[in-house]
Amino acid sequence: MDSIKGKFHITNFLPCLVSSRRSDVLMMTPWFAPIVWDGTYNIDILNAHFQQRNVCIGLTVFAIKKYTVFVQTFIETAEKYFMVGHKVNYYVFTDRVTDIPIMELAEGRQMRVLRVPAYQRWQDVSMRRMEMLRDYSYQQFRGEVDYLVCVDVDMRFSDEVGVEILSDLFGTLHPGMCGAKREHYTYERNPQSEAYIPFDEGDFYYAGGYFGGNIEEIYKLTNFCHNAMMADKDKNIEAIWHDESYLNKYFLYHKPTKVLSPEYLWDNGFGIPKFLKRQRFVAVPKNHNEIRN
Ligand code: UDP
Ligand code: MN
């Protein structure tokens, strides 16, 4: 661990008070949370700051049934790009423990494989992540890591994702909803659902496949989402985009303290718009029918 300590040094970077570093994108939410884009932060200052606190970051991922095929690339690319130089615990939730490759990890990084049940419907697999994250946050994560980063597994890192993302509670802008008008956000619109958001409410459309924060905040978020899903299930309701819909409901009334730009969750199917200077974490193309059944 010592080779990790003292790796980062404060620089003499001087911020300019009278010009912002990006003028083409929104850099702050109306509730004063930073929106993280390339060119808006100084990574040396942040690295030194988080290293001083000796933070450990948990990266959680679910690989249930056939999705175990994504694990190798996910971890390999995370080793190259995710929180390099900091302490990282990978938590791989799976029903197929023996399908998870044993991989060599850099110093200060470890992988825990957590055996969990598989649900039959892919919608349930996706939604039940909330319950499992809640339970493990309470039982395990709070004693082991300072922050959790909870993401989809059908992804690869292709550029740096560092401590600039860390905050008490953060969400990520959905790559498919960047320029969309609020009334076109695909929130749940059924007033009977716990995920319901009226057409004249909502700030951003957040992606279900990338959120995080400290353990207490993630416990509260996942507990809310799971309970809301269970309440809907009792009414025979399932929100349009499953866990993502409930996550959007939570973020509407519990504002994230940081918002990640779509650099952090991109899908090349959307092309590469001019404002997107980096693609840090991109979807691996998949055959939905084949992989989910
Ligand atoms: N997932 C899984 N096994 C499944 C279905 C889903 O492990 O059979 C997990 C996996 O982590 C996946 C996430 O649930 O990344 C969300 O599902 P998916 O990526 O298929 O949703 P999409 O990104 O296509 O909306
Ligand atoms: Mn996915």
How does the SSE layout of this entry go?
Elements: E1 35-36, H1 43-52, E2 56-63, H2 71-81, E3 87-94, E4 109-115, H3 122-127, H4 129-144, E5 147-151, E6 155-157, E7 169-173, E8 206-214, H5 215-234, H6 243-253, E9 258-260, E10 281-283, H7 288-292
Parallel strand pairs: 1-9, 2-3, 2-5, 3-4, 7-9
Antiparallel strand pairs: 5-8, 6-10, 7-8
Helix pairs in contact: 4-5, 5-6
Describe the structure.
The model has no long low-confidence stretch (mean pLDDT 96). With 293 residues, the protein is α/β, with parallel strands linked by helices. Helix content is 27%, strand content 18%. The chain is globular, with a radius of gyration of 19 Å. The chain is built from seven helices and ten strands. Strand 2, helix 2 and strand 3 form a beta-alpha-beta unit. The strands form two sheets. An eight-stranded mixed beta sheet has the order 1-9-7-8-5-2-3-4. Helix 4 packs antiparallel against helix 5. Bound molecules: uridine-5'-diphosphate and manganese (II) ion. This is ABO glycosyltransferase. InterPro entries: Glyco_trans_6, Nucleotide-diphossugar_trans. Belongs to the glycosyltransferase 6 family.
